[in-house]
Amino acid sequence: MKTKAIIWGIALLTILTILRFSTIMLSGKNLPSMGASEKNEVIKVGHLPVTCHLTCPVLDYTTETSNSTIRFKSTKFSDFPTIASAIQSKNLLATFMVAPLALKLKEDGVPIKICYLGHRDGSQLVVSKDSKYSNLKDLKGKKIAIPSMYSNQHFVLVELIQQLGMSKDDINFVALPPPDMPTSLASGAIDGFFVGEPFCAKAEMEKIGRVLYMASDIWPQFISCVLVVHEDLINSNPEAVKELVRGIAESGAWAETHRKEASQLASQYFKQDAKLLEYILTSRPQRVSYVRLKPTEEEVQKIYDIGLKIGLLKKKIPISSVLDTKFIPEQVLPADIKYSVKN
Known about the structure:
Pfam families: NMT1_2
Protein name: NitT/TauT family transport system substrate-binding protein
Radius of gyration: 25 Å
Keywords: Cell inner membrane, Cell membrane, Membrane, Signal, Transport
Structural class: alpha/beta
Distance between the termini: 71 Å
Number of helices: 13
Shape: globular
Subcellular location: Endomembrane system; Periplasm
Family: Belongs to the bacterial solute-binding protein SsuA/TauA family.
Number of domains: 2
């Protein structure tokens, strides 16, 4: 009798377990998904923690909290050589990088396209706060840090050097990871640096440096960084590339008119002080812009010509082979982002 009761108990428990499992399976369609929607695809987008790349974390936030089926996940690096290696090895299929480096990669046979810009302006030449330098001629024989030899910061300074009648050898250029520049200036390891924000403002706020030139003083509508996409992604998933470019464009339009919100949002991704980013984004005169980001052949050609002239680029390749603007939307509206400023 006792054995029979045990058998009936086991049977009843089995039936209840099956019923419970069936209920879960049947109701699974109505269970809430992770985040705002289920992401069918995640595409990493490389960036540095600089305001030139601010639209990257903004897009990450947008696609993570919206009904987008693609998550464009911002992936932070500290220097451009590592980014270049990542896209060469296809560990990244989309990234922001300095424009001349993208041209160099294309020249070397890496199948990439420039599809959009990251920003306009946004870089400054910073020197020691107590220095007596008043122009570039005063920096003859000095050491200036740049983010890469293949950077527009380098190219534009070489152009200015030549305009001032100086030799390109009059300035000692050294490539440094941008986060290291303020401390290198403070220690006296370098005499100045030319890079994207926030490291210029950081040097100012910490009483280390002062701005000698804004990029816009030397080259109005200055281009530092571009959005580069590997041709494998363009060929295999053009709709995703279209969504990426549209998303970056709309993120820029939102950031342009929501600067305080954008600074707080980006600070969480960059792991930087929100007040520092807010200072940069709300300063007057304006330090960086996130609109009018469609690159023209003339702009890219100008960069390429400088690279050829100074010997860092070697081959003459048609700009149409590296520039692909077909994914840029005709009309760019600000992204619909729900983000409140935290006091």
